[in-house]
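Support case: FE2/S2 (inorganic) cluster complex. Customer-provided input:
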Amino acid sequence: MITIHLHPHDTTQAARTLQALPGQSLMQAAVDANWPGIQADCGGLLTCATCHVVVHSDWQGKLPPVSPDEDGMLAFTAQTREVGSRLSCQIELTPELDGLQVTLPASQY
Ligand code: FES
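Agent response - structure generated as follows:
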């Protein structure tokens, strides 16, 4: 299992921890666990940008690079894109990502 830590945008709230299976996308794992804050309106088809997360700096280099299609969709996130912005449907969970830390944007719309 892979442990993921999801930090709310409101830093006064505690992070949530999720156990996920390798091969799942971060988005799917979050939706399956009924995590609030990741809407994923398109179901992972890379057409909605409502699965935006911000990957913490010490984890950014462990993820595959942003594809041209993901890069294009990151222009449509509700919250301004940050250095660590990614679409969680494009993050495939691998054992190397055990302990991954991400923060939710203030809003997905
Ligand atoms: S779920 Fe729609 S772009 Fe990720």
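The domain at 2-7+17-103 is CATH 3.10.20.30 (Ubiquitin-like (UB roll)).

Case will auto-close in a few days if no follow-up is received.
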